[in-house]
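JOB MANIFEST
job_type = single_chain_structure
chain_count = 1
residues = 315
[input]
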Amino acid sequence: MVSGIADRSLHKMTTQDIDPMFDRAARQFNSNLKALDEDVLRLEEWLNTQPHLPKLLDKNSLRNFVILNKCSIEIAKQKIDNYFSIRAKMPEVALGINPKLPYHKTFNEAAFLVEYPQPTDEMYRLIFFQAKGESLPESYEPINFVKKFHTIQEMRMRDGVMCGDVVVVDYRGFPLSIALKVTPMLVYKTLLLYERILSARLKAVHSINTAPYIMNIVRALKSVIKPKVFERLYFHPDLDSLKKVIRPDLLPVDFGGEGLSLQELEDALEEKYRKNQDLFDRIDEIKVDESLRPCKLEDNELLGYYGNFKKLEVD
């Protein structure tokens, strides 16, 4: 049964596959595929008037920026500008995501962080995290989770439909010493990158094997994210509880499901990274020439991290 699912789930989506999904996504915001592509043409025309911005976003990426910003062209423009500009402003989380860099191999030796290629019925993507072995090594750095997550998002922006993410975290093997490295500032900057730069939308976080000290850290994070986010955090006492909210065929065997294993998912992602190495090399070279910017970017309020430690609300 698992091999059959693998055959269906790992094929590369074609235009015939992806266009109906974009049409369905656009209809959530009273639009459709034709109107969506008209919006993409408007964005392409706008980009041609922005000489300070690199030419890196393809049609699929622009479609996703429109969808993720609820078909608002003006907000999509802001997010696209910030997508490029943030790399100079917040390099610790926005740079160094190339899969060929040492952090990537180090992370893969310690843990799985993978996405399931088949979407849920609501068109969301499932992302799974689990330690390899009995415990994460003391040398594990949570910032590498952010970089790996960013890598997944960059790849999916160009070859998938981004309607929202459902993250599943297994805290087994997540010791207190590692948990204490997850600082409020790191969480804040991660959400800033995720929601206000990549325009991604967090629909739920499902956790299992959550130790009491993890719960204490989660409660402490209320200082940086709004209550709306906490409504999307779910803590399951066991795998049976998790299987009640995620279809068995979309749940890896490592989580008690009938889907692809985490290793199969990782192997598929690594192959995708290898085939798209040139993309990540080009991302490494992104630079915004501020001297060519037609008008000053008002990012103090949009980014919200100059001087004030503002709360973030993921939509």
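[summary]
The chain has 16 helices and five strands.
The radius of gyration is 19 Å.
exit_status = 0
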